[in-house]
Design brief:
The structure is a single chain. The protein is of the alpha/beta class and about 325 residues long. The protein folds into 3 domains: about 100 residues, no CATH class; about 70 residues, no CATH class; about 150 residues, Rossmann fold (3-Layer(aba) Sandwich). About 35% of the residues lie in helices and about 25% in strands. The chain contains 10 helices and 15 strands. The protein has a 5-stranded antiparallel β-sheet, with helices on both faces. Strands 8-7-6-10-9 form a 5-stranded antiparallel β-sheet, sandwiched between helices. It is elongated. It starts with a helix and ends with a helix.
């Protein structure tokens, strides 16, 4: 599984090394990445994740290296004019503001909790104070507080006010960010197509769980990048899976009956995305049967099937690309 930015930071701290976190906090015009995008720059010059690449990233990396060892955060304003964008080969221009902060040993426990939230699909609010002393505080849903106990007023009120925010909020004294975990993706079926879906989806930010009733297919050797791999009966596993309405479900089992069983169970839950592989004829038959069984026609009509964007995909690799592309399209919409 791909390391999170916080795992990388912990690794540097373990080795007695330092680094910086760069976060895009505002943009005017277009830029390669949206507000909230992060990148880690280690003292050795190595980076993890991206805030857009090109000259923008180069300037931030250079500033981070120049400021390495400083225990105070700073703001970086970068303007990408049309000539600079064209010469750099980028397709985006505009003004970008980046918050650059050092990674400190005293915040190790906070980084560990942030890693835990991301990997377990939990939310939190992260407050970074930069007026005077540099302090960081994490408030979780159960009101657990990790880091510096800065004066946030009512912790519960602050959590409730910011937990639904998508973009960072900056004041004259604080940067307030909502920790939004990677969206969970349940892949039913551990065949050839799934083997290519799992790493692709992981690399673009989904938390992948692969489910199959065959241990020879659903295992870590075949799915080393997956967050979880379950060997369970397709129907029984639904009693163990978490559904909050934010889940993505991809049905690519080895047979029509299994597809239908999973679809039936999935239609009884709220999902962000529900897609099923198959030919148009097979799909029409199954969906018609779902309506005849009493399932809401509107909900059945919303099933993405045949699954994936139409790119004339044929091979398992191409089909995986089309499916993951559709997942990205739904997530970004």
């Amino acid at each position: 599984m791909k390391d999170t930015i916080y795992e990388v930071i912990e690794g540097y701290i373990d080795e007695g090394k330092t680094g910086s976190i760069a976060t895009i906090i505002s943009r005017d015009g277009s830029s390669p990445r949206d507000v909230g995008a992060k990148m880690f720059i280690g003292e050795d010059g190595r980076t993890h994740d991206t805030i857009g690449g090109g000259d923008l990233e180069y300037k931030v990396q250079k500033q981070a290296m120049d400021a390495m060892g400083c225990d105070k955060p700073q703001f970086i304003n970068i303007r990408m004019d049309s000539e600079e964008v064209a010469s750099d080969g980028m397709i985006c221009g505009g003004k970008v503001e980046v918050f650059l902060e050092p990674t400190l040993e005293k915040h190790r426990r906070l980084y560990q909790r942030l890693e835990h939230l991301e990997k377990n699909g939990e939310k939190g609010v992260l407050i970074t104070s930069f007026n005077g002393r540099f302090q960081k505080t994490l408030i979780e849903r159960d009101m657990r507080i990790t880091g510096d106990h800065i004066n946030t007023g009512s912790d519960y009120a602050l959590f409730q006010n910011h937990i639904s925010n998508i973009l960072p909020h900056v004041t004259s004294e604080k940067l307030i960010e909502t920790i939004h975990p990677s969206p969970p993706l349940y892949i039913f079926g551990a065949g050839h197509v799934s083997q290519f879906i799992a790493p692709l989806a992981t690399n673009v930010g989904f938390q992948v769980t692969v489910i199959d009733d065959r241990a020879e297919f659903a295992n870590r050797e075949r799915f080393p990048d997956a967050h979880d791999v379950w060997v369970e009966d397709f129907q029984d596993v639904f009693d163990q899976l978490k559904f909050t309405g934010e889940e993505y479900v991809v049905i690519v089992t080895r047979g029509h009956q299994y597809d239908q069983d999973v679809l039936e169970k999935s239609l009884q839950r709220e999902t962000k995305y529900l897609g099923m592989i198959g030919s148009k004829r097979k799909v029409q038959m199954i969906l018609k049967h779902m309506v005849e069984c009493g399932y809401n026609k509107k909900k059945v009509d919303e099933v993405y099937s045949p699954i994936g964007l139409s790119i004339k995909a044929e091979t398992p690799q191409e089909i995986a690309v089309s499916i993951v592309s559709e997942l990205i399209k739904v997530r970004r919409s």
